[in-house]
Specification:
Elements lengths: L35 H13 L3 E2 L6 E4 L9 E4 L6 E10 L4 E10 L12
Antiparallel strand pairs: 1-4, 2-3, 4-5
Length: 118
Amino acid sequence: MFCQCKNEQNFDTLEPNTNICPVCTGQPGALPTLSEDVLLLALKLGKALNCKINKESQFDRKSYFYPDLPMGYQITQLYKPTNTNGEVSFFVNNYEEEKKIRILDAHMESDTAKMIHE
């Protein structure tokens, strides 16, 4: 999302640390850059959820200390998300009753890899 690393998943044949870069390992001086494709997907999601698409948004760092998070922090939109105040409508009971689910926000964030223990 914030770097241009490949996402190859040939785990049996790849050498360790093949799909990483200074950004995803959180090295000092490495500046993350948001992917334009990710931004467009977030805007499409906001429209699909009938959200207010904010003119300004920001990214924040949440510090976590997990073995599968080499950066030591997660990049998220905690305080100023891209999309806010949406809702999704749907029908139940054979189209007799309409229900609405309120969407507080839909935001972008980096996520840690999944740890697999065997």
